[in-house]
Amino acid sequence: MTASVFFGCTFIAFGPAIALFLFTIARDPLRVIFLIAGAFFWLCSLLLSSLVWFITVQISNKESSSQQKGLLIFGVVLSVLLQETCRFGYYKLLKKANEGLLMLSAEETMPISIRQLAYVSGLGFGFMSGAFSMVNILADSVGPGTTGIHGDSQHYFLSSAFMTMAIILLHMFWGVVFFDSCEKQHWWSLAVVVISHLLVSCLTFQNPQYVGSLVPTYIIVFLVGLWAFFCSGGSLRNLKLCLTCKDKDFLLANHRPR
Amino acid sequence: MLINRDVSKFVYILFIYLLLCNSVAQKIYVELNNTVPCVRLLNATHQIGCQSSISGDTGVIHVLESEADLEWPLSKGPNPPYMVLLESSLFTKSIMMKMKNASSRVAGVVVVPKTSPPEFSPHTTCPNENTGVYTETYDHNLAHCNTTVWNPRGNGLSYEEFDFPVFSLKEDNETEVIKQCYFDHNRVVNGSGLQYPLCAMQLFSHMHAVTDTATCMRRSSMDFSTSPVMVCDPLGGYNVCAFIRPYNSTAFGHKENESVVIAAARLDSKAFFLEDSTGAEGSVSGFVTLLAAAQALCEATQEAPRTRNILFAFFHGEVFDYIGSSRMVYDMKNNMFVIDLDNVHSILEIGQVKTCISINVWTYKCMDIRSNNNESVTNLVKNLQSSTAGLNFSFVETDFSQPLPPSSFQRFLRARAIPGIVLADHQTDFNNRYYESFYDNAAHLNLTYPSNLSPEEQLEFVTDTAKSLTEVATAVARTLFKQAGGNNSQVNKINADPKTVTQMLYGFLVRSNNSWFQVLGSSLRCVFCLSEPNPPQYYVGVAKSSHQANALTYLVQYLLANLTGTATNLTQSQCKKPDELPNESTYLYSYLWVQGMVPPNSTQRESFCVRTAVRLVKAVSPAFDLGDYVSKEYSTWTKSQWKFIKARIFLVASRDLEMLTLGVGVAVLFTSLLVTYFVSTKADVLFSSVREPNNAAY
Q1: Which of B16, B27, B202, B656 to mutate to test the interface with A (most CBs of A within 10 A)?
Q2: Chains A and B: how many Cβ contacts under 8 Å?
Q3: Self-association or partners: how does it assemble (chain A) (predicted)?
Q4: Is B249 helix (H, G, I), strand (E, B) or coil?
Q5: A189 interface with B at CB cutoff 8 Å
């Protein structure tokens, strides 16, 4: 629509991701590298799924709309499965790399823990996924017009931005849970991650009823976020301590030499 | 700098390609494809036409219903600026001037041509007043149309300057889409406010040139890189010339003992929207008559030699201060043409001829008693009057006090007092109600065909207009024959062919993609044998440096070649290089390869080579050769260049929604920054319950 919509949607979609990057990743070059590598792995999964999509669309009957709709559903499911496969592949690669890094480095301890790697890789996936979802839409939001002349909803830009924000956060949480369940060999929680990813992607078929897709998505974001919080070492007690500012005492009490 | 420009052009094209292939953009914009813009023209002192800002002008669409409805976009409407949509009946000077004065609230104007208004002429009241023969120094009473105002209906709209874009829509489907969008979103319901989102339109027609010709030519030449960027282009084209007895085309200057009668007509016309020029009565009637006269004369004069030669001259660019005729006079004066002014015996010009009850004869009475021009003129008029024997009309000589109407003859008179006459159908001011406007079309010339005819049958059908013009052509041909010293007994055998005239009128005004034009046309210069069914563009266009003329010039050239030339047996390769053959000469003739007919039993056309004396002579104003861009003597018209011209419609959201989006975005950003800061500083505490024994780095 105009520059204000462009900036508004950019901040909505990428605000949390930018904040996370600035405060937790930007200072450590190793984390930046693993973030970009994670983004690259997501890009690989996109390349594979788009190749399959392109071939199947060329083969299919372009006139039949039910076939096209079925093809779209197939494409979405395939893409989700490929993303999770690439996430697993990245996990395997990181495990191997960690052993190698430990052998090479002079210190006794690993420079970066697997939990941090989980978070960083999830965020990398989220960045790239968000970029591909949103950049096209942002480029057109700069112009003077808004959607609607052919009957689409007016809130297309806003809801795309909110959806992208949800997807980025979800990728980050899924990364944490995925790596954690791979470490602990909890295969059922792996399955839950994949199923929740499929669920969120399929919820987008509700569009343009944006309420029907955004509200359940944010519920899922909240739930998966909680799960990731508990997976990565959080607990209700810690949260209460933080919020009531009693954390300094706790640290002093549990102080350990590093 | 060259590389930068190419790179930026490439990036720009990629951007546009991505934008167009983008499905999000397709959700937002509806591109309007068949639009005709009003562009900027410049001359020695002014700039005229329309201009948009460089990133387009956006306005909320408002369909104007009457002149009183103008209050809404100009003062009452709450969402300026507005894009005003007009029907052709409301496209008047008073409405346009009101919008021009309130241009901060008007983003642009879109005109939808529908029914013809009763009269409309956007040209000035006194066409070409500064470049004719009647100047202040010549006679104060006759200058600036003090005696006769030629175009009293003229409102001068074409010569106004607007700083918002003005477009014209051609196709009706797109107009329906726009009106539907307007009715769905922009209508005021029961006096309540308008609901966002509103339907808006954006027009891009940014013109590079400003101020006047001298400024833009100076700016064009200031660029010192290897490929100079032109900001404006001079108008011009080609004149079509044919001698009955051709001369060696490389020998310029005076020809001893040669006396030539020039038969002239004008080719071009214009309208407010330049690409929509039609000019049926203004120019087509004149040159079609001359073409038919040329055909009649050439058929009759195969055997008999004559004392004087005849030059058929079709001048281009006459609307813009006589570009074609001033160029020919300049060439003649400077020995750059095969004859010079001393060789010219007299001039006969065909002006606007529509009705045929009586054609008025305008003569120029020379004040100088030393010359014997008055006698020559009297002879010419006598020849003319006698040529109408047996025809259904007559020539009427106009009153002595009337000056000549605007015509190419005036440029010759400016150089030398040559006897001549101008034929036109008006006695004082123009009869043409639509002089130089879009409505001067086939309907205005009363070209009506019975409704049950196919296009091919319409081509052959002889309309009444064609019959009248045939008679005029016959009279003109006979007059020319007698002027050239032909035998009086042969005169009555000269007759113009009504079938040729009606086919020409059909081709020039209704459909140029017809079988006759295709037969006579060229397969190489396929500008008019394409699928374009519409009549060609009559506006003169810019003078291209690549020796390419526009479609109208080629049409007239090939027609004249076929009507006055002879078919030969040469093959295509011989036609390209005929000098090798003993009897052919490219000095005297030009050889054109013509498509020919498709015989009934095959699909291949039988093309052939035509030997003709028709030549294209460059018609660019001498001011550009002399470098005198402020010339008062010659035409200095140029057309601005532009990057792209397009139009699109879309919905606009309210300012409140946009600000809300921005506010929410900023709020989300700040909230996430705060939360992240909080979490990252307390990370030790928050994520402390599971400690791994061997890797405790955080």
Answers
A1: B27
A2: 167
A3: Component of the gamma-secretase complex.
A4: coil
A5: no
Chain B contact for A35 (CB, 8 A cutoff): no
A182-195 as b/e: b if 16+ CB within 10 A: beeeeeebbebbbe
Using a CB-CB distance cutoff of 8 angstroms, which residues of chain A are in contact with residue B652?
Answer: 1, 144-146
Residue B309: which residues within 8 A CB-CB, separation 6 or more? B243, B244, B245, B258, B259, B260, B261, B484
Judge whether B348 and B421 are in contact, CB under 8 Å: yes
Cβ contact B398:B361 at 8 Å:
yes
Name chain B contacts of A233, Cβ cutoff 8 Å: 686-690
Extract the tokens encoding A77: 């499911």
Interface of B with A in 648-667 (CB under 8 A): 648-653, 657-659, 661-666
Which 3 state secondary structure label does DSSP give B629? Answer: coil
Which residues of B are less than 8 Å from A68 in CB distance?
none
Task: Write the DSSP string, B52-66.
Answer: --TT-EEEEEEE--S
**Residue B202 parent element (H or E):** strand B198-204
Please name every residue paired with B618 in a beta bridge, in sequence order, or none if there are none: B238
Q: Do A146 and B680 touch (CB under 8 A)?
A: no
Whole-complex ipTM:
0.91
Helices (H), chain A: 3-20, 29-59, 65-104, 114-141, 156-183, 187-203, 210-231, 236-243, 247-253
In this complex, do A110 and B695 lie within 8 Å of one another by their Cβ atoms? Answer: yes
Query: Which strands sit side by side in the sheet containing B161-162, from one edge to the other?
Result: B161-162, B47-50, B41-42, B638-640, B232-234
In A, which residues are within 8 Å of B694 by CB distance? Answer: 109
Interface of A with B in 192-231 (CB under 8 A): 229
Distance CA B629, CA B623 (A): 6
**A interface test, pick of B199, B656, B686 with most A CB neighbours within 10 Å:** B686
State residue B57 phi and psi, 5-degree precision.
Answer: -115, 125
Of B650, B669, B676, the CB nearest to A11: B669
SS3 B196: coil
Of A18, A110, A232, which is closest to B687 when you measure between CB atoms? A232
List of chain B residues with pLDDT < 70 = 1-22, 171, 189-193, 222-226, 302-305, 355-360, 363-374, 523-533, 689-698
Q: Do B650 and A157 touch (CB under 8 A)?
A: no
Closest Cα in chain B to A24: B680
Picking from B25, B665, B692, the nearest residue to A140 by CB comes out as B25
User: What are the start-end ranges of the E strands in B267-363?
Assistant: 309-315, 344-350, 358-363
SS3 B347: strand
B310 within 8 A of B301, measured Cβ to Cβ: no
* Other Cβ atoms closer than 10 A to A19: 22
Cis omega before residue B81 (within 30°)?
yes
Rg of chain A on CA atoms, in Å:
21
End-to-end, the C-alpha distance of chain A in Å comes to 54
For residues A246 and A127, the model is more confident at: A127
For residue A167, give how far its alpha carbon lies from the nearest alpha carbon of chain B (Å).
Answer: 15
The string of pLDDT tens digits covering residues B75-122 is 888 888 999 999 888 999 999 999 999 889 999 999 998 888 898 999
Give CA torsion, residues B383, B384, B389, B390, to 10 deg: 140
A134-177 pLDDT, tens per residue?
999 999 999 999 998 888 888 899 999 999 999 999 999 999 99
